[in-house]
Amino acid sequence: xxxxxxxxxxxxxxxxxxxxxxxxxxxxxxxxxxxxxxxxxxxxxxxxxxxxxxxxxxxxxxxxxxxxxxxxxxxxxxxxxxxxxxxxxxxxxxxxxxxxxxxxxxxxxxxxxxxxxxxxxxxxxxxxxxxxxxxxxxxxxxxxxxxxxxxxxxxxxxxxxxxxxxxxxxxxxxxxxxxxxxxxxxxxxxxxxxxxxxxxxxxxxxxxxxxxxxx
Length: 215
Fold this sequence. Notes:
single chain; 215 residues; mainly alpha; Rhomboid-like fold; two-stranded antiparallel sheet; two-stranded antiparallel ribbon; globular
């Protein structure tokens, strides 16, 4: 949990700094053109610690907290943990390393599609932790495929192993349609990284996940 709290604190402090200092925010946002043509590679990481406004920040940090550190009751017993505690429970001290690599790797890998798509558009900018948060969410889904999930304000009634693929499909079509002002490509790429990383850590998770689709 310590890594998540550190990420929450750093992201909130840096984002608030960006709210009040536009030159600071502009210097560290994701800009595929500058990354490609001026080698400003640091933007591939720094953008994830910046947000457009308090609502954007609150949504991403709430999602990170819920899926990464909050403890949820399971049949009256507090045994169903969110991602960071569950990684530590499963893999011991390596769990801390796994979570850190998952999040930071999710930041980087969630930018690849966006950079490739907008590398010649100097006016395109993006910011926010949603790609990394997507990595966390989909790693969580692999570990907890039977957890019920949903989209606010509707109650969580769909098993995670069904909700995850449906979410990816919707993100794909929204990215293809465009015009939403949301980096759906980053969400998809982050999710793919989260799944791939957990498959490398423990491939049995993938086998167990697909077992849920068997009749």
